[in-house]
């Protein structure tokens, strides 16, 4: 009886040691994964502020909280478990899903670039207000939140898939803990940063009030003037990051493209950050080209189906 009890205690001690070793490994894995998904995080943080621009300032933080909550739920309850299940039953499917998401990012990035440089070539023959439908602020808020969650879903799927790929050789407990930690940490970091950005102008207005010293007021006015430019710059950064991340994800799934990227990195002089910048620029240009190709394919398919439907309609 005593021997059996001691054996049980030995098993419990071994289990505790194994669990402790697993938990000790989690911070390392989280740090490693955070570095790998940094590009997507930059993209997410840069893209999100546009969804609250033009809405009631008093609703900005509430809208961001809605998006963040849905993002966290998607990561923890849907995307994380889906990555684990796919990794267990059909691990070969994860890379194609990642590449499909990367293609979507390239397409979205190209659309943004096209809208930036093509905005002066829109048809000006339409009358002001023609074809526009009046919507309430509440409806606009719902549309913005839905659009933001849809974009975040793609980016979150990429984050969780990449996270799984970094812990695929670890125990199931480590995989679950690391993916949960990444989901919570990334969501708080991204939307906390977004919240600070969208309320910075309010802070500037508060600082610019007469009750504050001259230096504080000057700083406050500077913040208010700078924020619109900062948001514009941030949107450009988000677009570049979207193209760069999308193209790099696709390149990682195609061996000769992956080797080509690595060759570019090695060919660049070993100056701090220069290889990384070169790689990002090449990926951004490649993503822009791929996005343009995808846009042409989608436009052709849409045109083909429209013609097909017209032929099917009886005259």
What does this structure look like?
It is a single chain. The chain is mainly alpha-helical and 315 residues long. It has one domain. It has helices at 2-36, 38-47, 60-89, 94-117, 137-166, 172-198, 200-207, 214-253, 255-267, 274-312. The longest helix is centred in the last third of the chain and has 40 residues, at 214-253. Residues 11-21 and 121-128 have low confidence and may be disordered.
Order of helices and strands: HHHHHHHHHH
Query: What spatial form do the alpha-carbon principal axes imply?
Result: globular
Proportion of helical residues: over 70%
Give the mean pLDDT. 81
Q: In what range is the share of β-strand residues?
A: under 5%
Distance between the termini: 91 Å
Number of separate strands: 0
Q: How would you describe the oligomerization state of the chains in this entry?
A: single chain
Low-confidence stretches: 11-21, 121-128
**Main sheet?**
none
Outline of the structure:
The protein is built from ten helices and no strands. By secondary structure, the protein is mainly alpha-helical.
Reconstruct the topology from this structure.
Elements (H helix, E strand, L loop, with lengths): L1 H35 L1 H10 L12 H30 L4 H24 L19 H30 L5 H27 L1 H8 L6 H40 L1 H13 L6 H39 L3
Helix pairs in contact: 1-6, 2-5, 2-6, 2-8, 3-5, 3-6, 4-5, 4-8, 4-10, 5-6, 7-8, 8-9, 8-10, 9-10
Keywords:
single chain, 0% strand, mainly alpha, 315 residues
